[in-house]
């Protein structure tokens, strides 16, 4: 289970971008989250990926409540979720060769010995060719770089994937190839997926269940009218 | 707006044998665009589609004279009497950009100066391109320019960050329309926009073509947007135009004839959602013959020779109507 | 505008835009030659040229430039060319050592503040503010006054007063980098704070820090001369460029320009050349610039 309950989050506590959002994913489930740009769905995706601490609300990952975000989250929780972002150029350290980019999480978690094996598996799985692995990000196209970013997200074999507008910058063929790579991985491992985007045709085709942003909001008003009575009861 | 309907569609832009090479350190040459031929007529919209990195943005930059210093071009691109590729920087700056070609940019919010209002952007452009002088005349001209792109007059005093994506797009379109240029060039106008906003943007651009006097060249990888806006489609692969077709036939029946175009359409999520196997070749080391052959299920020995673009298609084994019936 | 014929026969290739590359290449080459000349002079002249820079010849006081003394002589009849080369040695040693020390301190503080954020950031930046609120020279004098005069107190004094701007630059750069998705991706991949800082943040700010260090060298050289002027810096018998210019003030008022001009040029020319090289190096090392090919 990946469960986000009553999440309020943002960059300025006075004006949160996400207010009272609730979302639950069953193990292995794929959920597409639709919403207009700027609605806060990327922020919610970062909360779900344990990269952004919410101002209020709880996140439960496979039965364990999440108590810390970013570096404060335990390794096991952080690495249980793989993330892919919208813009491959900004998501790749410009100094790393693609092979180092993909292997970076293995190095960070001291599993260097697995690098050759995982690289050999993932390179064809995401549709890269071995000659591209020696290049740096500025020497490959956006599509190729996004394939490498997907491989990086898969390298630790996460139980969950969060894809935030993964294909918004890409052409139709690369989009289909990346989605196929994600689905192959999910079929093999039973990982769950939260795909965030604005293309309803794509998300309907890709995910078993799609939700609209407005479906997540438990209470439209931050101070519902019945709240005083409810407080009185406690 | 005057509406003297042009019945016979005269050619606005005529591109013949346009090629662009980048000279790289170490003597490497990158064939970004090779031997492109196409025309755009008044009142017509041509969509140039293809994967990112296929050279379509380079083609746009070549038309605007915005190539970097290590680029070399060949061929010609005639806009009226002027060859855009042979024009010097002075001509391009004074008579081409804004006056003969209006550019609708990729990300309008980044295209506008953040510290200036839309009105101040428009005023500067109106004064520079139409020579309007005097406070009252300028004010009226600015409001007329905004109205042409359906930009609401009460939002003119806002700064770019106070505009929604749709309004920012309209502001950018208003700027592109000021010079009353015969050719509008839209470079990926819908990247990153929501589907509704894409439809909206595309419909508005279309409206400016439907007056019959302008022509529109849209460069995009968004096939749905291209289907909505285009009269004709040019498909680019590895720097070459491989198919040039009527948009209705291309997106509907009988469908595309080039195997690459077919693959591209079949990759759409509302069609087969199946990727084309493999990846596009490097523009620095293109294979001999047809560049698509390594990824093509119809490839034969004939494909080691370069297919010429004939009858709107560059392929040795195009799909024929009888294939489709089968 | 256009130049250089392209060697392919087939279509007639045209070039576009101004060739800024070539003028940049020339600039870089000039800088390389100047820096190389400086380094060679400083390293080779003292061991190879067996002349005593301290040789006093009161019969040759304040001679204008000539064939036997290309830069003229000073008020004690010492050859100024030789004095300048020796002075450059001392000044460069002080300048480079102080700039390097200041950059290491500044980068460490700035990166720590930026990477940790929160109260650590606030505390470190308050320290920076406190140091900044005291005039450089005053603090420099204080530090030098604690030690006996010599080369090392001057280096320490200049370094301890010059790391502040580097710390600010590095912190700002780290803060902007920290918001990039690739840092998010690293965190998600299980990277520790230390690893994120050392593997992803520091390599990205090093070109900036190195540039700041190079640009600090002239500043440090001038600071050394200011301390020397006050009698708190280098001992006067050491021919630093600062000492030379300071000693030349009297002759300058009498219209004897060469004791001021040549040491001045010895400060300006090498430091401009080094700064020019640093700029070119930064353009090269920054991969974002190279991706501007629209491919």
UniProtKB/TrEMBL annotation, chain A:
GO molecular function: ATP binding; ATP hydrolysis activity
Keywords (A to Z) from UniProt: ATP-binding, Nucleotide-binding, Transport
Cross-referenced Pfam families: ABC_tran
PROSITE patterns referenced in this protein's UniProt entry, alphabetically: ABC_TRANSPORTER_2
Gene Ontology terms describing biological process: transmembrane transport
Cited Gene3D superfamilies: P-loop containing nucleotide triphosphate hydrolases (3.40.50.300)
InterPro entries: AAA+_ATPase, ABC_transp_ATP-bind, ABC_transporter-like_ATP-bd, P-loop_NTPase
Residues covered by the ABC transporter domain: 2-231
Protein name from the UniProt record: ABC transporter
UniProtKB/TrEMBL annotation, chain C:
Residue ranges occupied by any ABC transmembrane type-1 domain in the UniProt entry: 88-278
One biological process term in Gene Ontology: transmembrane transport
Gene Ontology cellular-component terms listed: plasma membrane
Signal peptide segment: none
Name of a matching Pfam family: BPD_transp_1
Name by which UniProt lists this protein: ABC transporter permease
Organism per entry: Streptomyces longwoodensis
Cellular localization per UniProt: Cell membrane
Top-level taxonomic group: Bacteria
Main location: membrane
Membrane topology: Multi-pass membrane protein
Transmembrane region(s): 30-49, 90-116, 123-145, 201-222, 261-281
Protein family (similarity comment): Belongs to the binding-protein-dependent transport system permease family.
Keywords for the protein's UniProt record, in alphabetical order: Cell membrane, Membrane, Transmembrane, Transmembrane helix, Transport
């Amino acid at each position: 289970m990946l469960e986000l309950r009553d999440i309020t989050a943002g960059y300025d506590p006075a004006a949160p971008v996400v207010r009272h959002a609730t979302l639950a994913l069953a193990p292995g489930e794929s959920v597409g989250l639709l919403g207009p740009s700027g609605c806060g769905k990327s922020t919610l995706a970062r909360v779900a990926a344990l990269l952004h601490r919410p101002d209020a609300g709880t996140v439960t990952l496979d039965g364990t409540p999440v108590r810390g975000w970013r570096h404060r989250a335990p390794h096991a929780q952080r690495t249980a979720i793989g993330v892919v972002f919208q813009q491959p150029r900004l998501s790749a350290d410009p100094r790393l060769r693609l092979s180092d980019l993909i292997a970076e999480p293995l190095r960070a978690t001291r599993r260097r010995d697995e690098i050759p094996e995982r690289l050999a598996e993932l390179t064809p799985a995401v549709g890269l060719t071995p000659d591209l692995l020696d290049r740096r990000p500025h020497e490959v196209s956006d599509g190729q770089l996004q394939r490498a970013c997907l491989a990086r997200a898969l390298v630790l074999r996460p139980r969950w994937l969060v894809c935030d507008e993964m294909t918004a910058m890409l052409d139709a063929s690369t989009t289909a190839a990346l989605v196929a790579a994600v689905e192959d991985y999910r079929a093999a491992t039973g990982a769950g997926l939260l795909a965030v985007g604005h293309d309803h045709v794509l998300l309907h085709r890709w995910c078993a269940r799609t939700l609209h942003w407005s479906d997540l909001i438990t209470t439209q008003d931050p101070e519902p009218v019945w709240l005083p009575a409810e407080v009185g009861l406690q | 707006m005057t509406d003297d309907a042009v019945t016979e569609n005269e050619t606005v832009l005529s591109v013949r044998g346009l090629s662009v090479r980048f000279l790289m350190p170490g003597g490497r040459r990158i064939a970004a665009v090779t031997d492109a031929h196409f025309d755009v007529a008044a009142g017509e919209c041509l969509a140039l589609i293809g994967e990112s990195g296929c050279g379509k943005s380079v083609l746009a930059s070549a038309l605007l004279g915005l190539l970097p210093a290590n680029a070399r071009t060949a061929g010609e691109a005639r806009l009226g009497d002027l060859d855009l590729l042979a024009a010097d920087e002075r001509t391009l700056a004074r008579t081409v950009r804004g006056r003969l070609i209006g550019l609708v940019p990729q990300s309008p919010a980044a295209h506008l100066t953040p510290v200036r209002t839309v009105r101040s952007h428009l005023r500067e452009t109106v004064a520079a391109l139409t020579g309007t002088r005097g406070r009252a005349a300028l004010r009226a001209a600015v409001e007329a320019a905004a109205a042409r792109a359906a930009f609401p007059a009460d939002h003119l005093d806002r700064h770019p960050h106070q505009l929604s994506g749709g309004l920012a797009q309209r502001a950018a379109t208003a700027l592109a329309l000021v010079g009353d240029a015969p050719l509008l060039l839209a470079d990926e106008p819908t990247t990153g926009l929501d589907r509704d906003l894409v439809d909206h943007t595309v419909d508005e651009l279309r409206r400016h073509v439907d007056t019959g006097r302008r022509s529109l060249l849209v460069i995009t990888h968004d096939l749905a947007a291209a289907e909505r806006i285009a009269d004709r489609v040019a498909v680019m692969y590895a720097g070459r135009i491989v198919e040039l077709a009527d948009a209705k036939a291309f997106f509907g029946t009988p469908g595309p004839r080039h195997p690459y175009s077919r693959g591209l359409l079949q990759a759409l999520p509302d069609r087969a959602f199946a990727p084309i196997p493999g990846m596009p070749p490097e523009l620095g080391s293109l294979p001999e013959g047809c560049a698509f052959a390594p990824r093509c299920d119809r490839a034969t020995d004939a494909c080691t020779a370069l297919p010429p673009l004939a009858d709107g298609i560059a392929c040795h084994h195009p799909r024929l109507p009888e294939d489709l019936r089968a | 505008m256009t130049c250089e014929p392209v060697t392919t026969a087939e279509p007639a290739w045209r070039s576009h835009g101004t060739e800024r590359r070539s003028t940049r290449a020339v600039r870089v080459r000039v800088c390389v030659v100047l820096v190389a000349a400086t380094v060679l002079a400083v390293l080779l002249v003292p061991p190879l040229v067996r002349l005593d820079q301290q040789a006093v010849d009161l019969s040759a006081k304040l001679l204008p430039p000539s064939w036997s003394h290309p830069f003229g002589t000073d008020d004690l009849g010492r050859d100024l060319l030789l004095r300048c080369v020796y002075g450059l040695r001392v000044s460069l040693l002080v300048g480079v050592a102080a700039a390097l020390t200041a950059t290491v301190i500044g980068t460490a503080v700035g990166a720590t503040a930026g990477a940790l954020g929160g109260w650590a950031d606030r505390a470190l930046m308050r320290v920076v503010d406190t140091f900044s609120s005291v005039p450089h020279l005053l603090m420099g004098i204080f530090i030098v006054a604690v030690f006996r005069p010599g080369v090392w107190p001057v280096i320490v004094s200049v370094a301890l007063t010059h790391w502040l701007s580097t710390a600010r630059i590095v912190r700002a750069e780290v803060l902007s980098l920290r918001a990039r998705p690739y840092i998010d991706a690293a965190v998600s991949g299980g990277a520790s704070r230390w690893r994120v800082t050392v593997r992803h943040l520091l390599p990205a700010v090093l070109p900036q820090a190195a540039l700041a260090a190079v640009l600090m060298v002239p500043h440090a050289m001038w600071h050394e001369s200011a301390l020397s002027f006050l009698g708190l810096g280098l001992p006067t018998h050491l021919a630093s460029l600062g000492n030379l210019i300071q000693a030349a003030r009297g002759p300058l008022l009498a219209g004897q320009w060469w004791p001021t001009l040549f040491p001045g040029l010895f400060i300006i020319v090498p430091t401009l050349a080094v700064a020019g090289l640093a700029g070119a190096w930064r353009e090269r090392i920054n991969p974002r610039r190279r991706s501007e090919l629209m491919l």
